[in-house]
């Protein structure tokens, strides 16, 4: 009888552990499309949702376009109305997987991993492959990565009037600190 109870308890614990996800609702995404000698074109969104399934290494992230803040209010207005068209395309979504991810192998020292997935932005979807630094943090797991996309790949048009002041190549930085959440 004791063995049956012990086995049942282990099964319940295993099911509970397998349903844990690591989540952040305050991940930070920064993008920059600046051109030398002109005003900085840079924005930050500090309210990005980021989810990691530590058992599989699958990740997903959602950023609302109107959450990006610029130093210059007029840039923010142009970004939302003319370039990213936030009313029509309100969010960016990334879904992918961290290759070779093993939660148990992480320590406070960051390890290099490769993230592969799809970025959906402005009604288009593109494959993204990027290196990431991942480490254990006091609250869970820290992930940071940098990658570049081309605005033209997502049908984001840059008017001729400002083409010399705004780069087609957009550098993106993602930083997330994830804690455990039961699903």
Give a structural overview.
It comes from Flavobacterium calami. InterPro entries: Lipid/polyisoprenoid-bd_YceI, TTHA0802/YceI-like_sf. By secondary structure, this protein is of the alpha+beta class. It is 15% helix and 50% strand. It contains two helices and nine strands, in the order H-E-E-E-E-H-E-E-E-E-E. It has helices spanning 2-18, 73-83, and strands at residues 20-32, 42-53, 58-64, 69-70, 91-98, 111-121, 124-137, 140-150, 169-182. The chain has an eight-stranded antiparallel beta barrel.
Give helix % range.
Answer: 10-25%
The overall average pLDDT, rounded, is: 88
Distance between the termini: 31 Å
- The low-confidence runs, each spanning 5 or more residues with pLDDT under 50, are 1-18
The gross shape turns out to be elongated
Total helical elements: 2
Properties at a glance:
183 residues; alpha+beta; 2 helices; 9 strands; elongated; disordered N terminus
Topology:
Blueprint: H1 2-18, E1 20-32, E2 42-53, E3 58-64, E4 69-70, H2 73-83, E5 91-98, E6 111-121, E7 124-137, E8 140-150, E9 169-182
Antiparallel strand pairs: 1-2, 1-9, 2-3, 2-4, 3-5, 5-6, 6-7, 7-8, 8-9
Brief synopsis:
The chain is α+β, with helices and mostly antiparallel strands and 183 residues long. Helices cover 15% and strands 50% of the residues. The N terminus is likely disordered.
